[in-house]
Amino acid sequence: MATATNVEATAVNTIEWLSAPGTAIVVPVYQRQYRWDIGGCERLLADIRAVAGEDDTHRHFIGSILSAQDSAETDLILIDGQQRITTLMLLVAALHHAVRDADAEMAAELERVLVRADDASRTKLRPHDAWAHLYESVVLDRRDDVERESRFDDNYAFFRSQVHADEAPRIWRGLQRLEHVSITLGAQANAQQIFESLNSTGEPLRDHELIHNYILMGLTHAEQLDVESRFWLPIEQHTGEMIGAFWRHYLVMTTGREVTADGEHGVYAAFRRSFPNVDVAHLQSDAEVWRHYAEIYGILLDPSHEPDDEIRAQLGYINTFGRAAYPLVMRAYSDHARGLISRAEFIETLEWTQALYLRRALAGLPAERLIARLCRARAEGRDALMRAFARITPSDERVSAVLKYVELPHAAYVLGRLESVDDTSEFDVEHIVPLLPGEAWSGDGSRRWSEYSEDEQNSHRALTPTLGNLTLLEQGLTERVFGAAFPDKQAGAYARSAVDETRALVDVPAWGTAAITERTVRLAASLLRIWARPALPEIDDDGLTPVLDAVRRRGWPAGWDREFDYVEYRGEHWEVKDVRALFNRVFRRAWTDDRDAALRYSAAHGGPIYSEMAWKGQWDALDDENFLYMGWDSNYMMNALQGVLEESGISAEVFVKYSYIGNVM
User: Fold this and answer.
1) Is 448 within 8 Å of 442 (Cβ atoms)?
2) Is 647 helix (H, G, I), strand (E, B) or coil?
């Protein structure tokens, strides 16, 4: 058997490997910047606590660490594993600083992991020069009080907030049970080429593949085969290539929160939070629910499988607007199928959904980040859902005003319902005044297009894509009169159409801007009736976003200086510019109005309120004995303020108004 002569791979204890006197690791310049966030630190710490609670035979595997020997020095060049090793070092540093005054023996063991045996002023891990000083100032506790923003500071502060002296032996025990495969390249290996190949080739596991592995990995082989055949394969069959979207939509439906597919496996992370236990005891009931919703999802993707004619048509209409509404539609479909709501209420929900998307498209309003809030409202019943729809669906007056001037979105769908054409596949959207009229085109048979004034031509062009100038026409007839003058279209096509609205054009004496406007007004009345807004008083929400739907962003994005125009807090108008300011104000208000909720949240999550300023950083005193740590990144701050508002039961009464910059970040 051939062997690799230039690669050495060995399974090692991670802490022993790091503690060895000869271990010194350098992060090369071609490595990306350290980017683990607090979520990753939480998962690592949870894994360490878990393995610490097991018996002495248990170990936790953290993957492989790839390094190469520096030809000029004895240092190891860290090719792959920088993120994990750096995070471990920050945890060890936090543990060291927590116990150094109370447990000299443990502190000495931890110090052997952190600093070189020949020089205690130098760390064993050295990031490249661009941010080495940041890392070393944290690990060696040489930070001054200058405000700065870095992942080293954030993650160290998180570990310091979680690790206390009384838990230190347990954390240290868990750390000592970490293992990895140490892969060392020989002197002749091209380290940078191998790094580039590791980071530019191969297909990383997708979210649904991670979910699949997560579900099965704790089961016996027989149990895996059973779950695969009875549950996972049917889910794949129903959802096909959209299985990843299915899991995201399912989680939006069940959590009532936006689940992003961006970043580091956001869907998978949300799944693990929702299903922390997937052993056999829990899996049977959970998997039956997943399979049930996957079957519904398959019907949404292909409504031809729906036996009810009207529901089948309505699901087809929903697909006009894409799949964003699927979380809400899945829940409503399931409730109807299980007899929890009537057929009429289910169809009503589908109609409200279409009205929401069409009216917002007409009014030029964004359609993103709407469905999670509707899922939350749906869980409270029909009245709550109706109010939620009414809040974000433009009014009749607003839609009537814009219909005269804006291009009609989803024209075939709208005209099909207006003109009672169930299947529009054999029809074209006919522009009565063509988009590009020829010189001979005429609206009355006497004046040619070339005889229209420039202002008249511009007025006609502006109205060509609007509702009043559009109708459905059979494709064969469209080809016959393409570009023809209006009188020729009347005789050659409109009179022969099976569509009543199209045939009615035969009776119009001439076609121009006045006729277009008159027809728009008439059809608008039907449009407002078919795509009806829930019959509730108009609520002008000024584009406000419920705080639970606010975007959670990593780090400090461009535009940080002005993310919000303002915040509505239980009817109060707050001038706050960004997540940091909102985080501070929400926790200060919670401390005043509902201190028990603030303390419960902080106790359950290990912060952000502490009884002392235990490490250097940015703090705000709530009183003489309680302090709010302000050095988190924006993602942590948004999660925390959302969490304390939910703990207080007032999250539904808080909204953010994004500034222009905040919206486009």
Assistant:
1) yes
2) helix
Q: Say how far apart CA 614 and CA 147 lie, in whole Å.
A: 16
Q: What string of DSSP letters covers 294-308? A: HHHHHHHH-GGG--S
Strand, coil or helix: what is 180? strand
In this structure, what token pair is assigned to residue 131?
Answer: 């941010």
Percentages of the chain per state (helix, strand, coil), in multiples of 5 = 55, 10, 35
- Rounded CA separation 249/330 (Å): 9
Residues 394, 501: Cα–Cα separation, whole Å:
27
127-139 confidence digits (pLDDT tens): 876 678 889 999 9
Cis, bond preceding 537 (omega within 30 deg of 0): no
The residue behind tokens 């004496």 is 509
To the question of pTM greater than 0.85 for the whole model, the response is: no
323 DSSP 8-state letter: S
Tell me the sheet residues that pair with 473: 428
H or E stretch covering 657: strand 654-658
pLDDT in tens, 589-608: 999 889 999 999 999 999 99
Contacts of residue 603, defined as CB under 8 A and 6 or more positions apart, other chains included, come to: none
Is residue 654 within 8 Å of residue 568, measured between CB atoms? yes
What is the per-residue burial (b if ≥16 Cβ within 10 Å, else e) of 234-244?
A: bbbebbeebbb
Encoded tokens for 295: 């079957």
Q: How many CB atoms lie within 10 A of CB 182?
A: 19
- DSSP-assigned beta bridge partners for residue 658: 564
3-class SS string, 343-382: HHHHHHHHHHHHHHHHHHHHHCCCCCCCHHHHHHHHCCCH
Alpha carbon 153 to its chain centroid, in Å, reads 26
For 55-89, give the DSSP string.
-TT--EEEEEEEEEE-SSSSPEEEEE-HHHHHHHH
Strand pairing class (125-126; 627-629): unpaired
Distance from C-alpha of 312 to C-alpha of 304, rounded to nearest angstrom: 7
CB 154 within 8 A of CB 632: yes
Listed residue (453, 459, 439) closest to 511, CA to CA = 459
Predicted confidence at residue 663, as pLDDT, reads 47
DSSP label of 427: E
Structure tokens at 435: 């988009």
Helices (H), 500-541: 500-503, 513-530
